[in-house]
Amino acid sequence: MLLVSQRTAYFTIFIPDQPHPAEEYAAAELQYYTQLITGACPRIQKEPLSPSQSCAIFIGNTKTTKSTFRTILKKPLATEEYIIRTRENHLFIFGGSPRGTLYAVYELLGKAGV
Questions:
Q1: Of 4, 32, 105, 108, which sits most exposed with the smallest number of CB within 10 A?
Q2: Which has the minimum average pLDDT: 18-22, 56-60, 63-67, 100-104?
Q3: What 3-state DSSP class applies to 37?
Q4: What are the φ and ψ backbone dihedral angles of 23, each rounded to 5 degrees?
């Protein structure tokens, strides 16, 4: 999955239609550090997924996240639990609460060396 090349972001960050402030903040943090590290500034957009979008990062409790992981999650995540997973050309970052989602973004950034 190619996310950034030569200061160009090849993905969009998607958040829910009606995001919690912590989900908006998590998306902004990911955008900020992506730009700081790579020079590329990805867009943040509320769902739905644009048909032309081939690579996306879904932050928080989006409709796409819910439909993708409905059968995998047998029980709800605890408040501070989170999941970071890829499916096809998409990256999903979400938690049992908006705070869990923010923790997931920080975990991903930490693994990237931030």
A1: 32
A2: 63-67
A3: helix
A4: -70, -40
Confirm if 42 and 58 have CB atoms less than 8 A apart: no
Dihedral-angle region of residue 58 (phi above 0 means left; psi in -120 to 50 means alpha; beta otherwise): beta
| Distant-in-sequence, close-in-space partners of 65: CB < 8 Å, separation ≥ 6 | 58, 92, 94
Map out the domains of the chain as residue ranges. Answer: 12-109
User: What is the Cα–Cα distance from 68 to 13, expressed in whole angstroms?
Assistant: 16
CATH topology of domain 12-109: Chitobiase; domain 2 (3.30.379)
Give residue 3's pLDDT band: very low, low, confident or very high (50, 70, 90): confident
pTM: 0.91
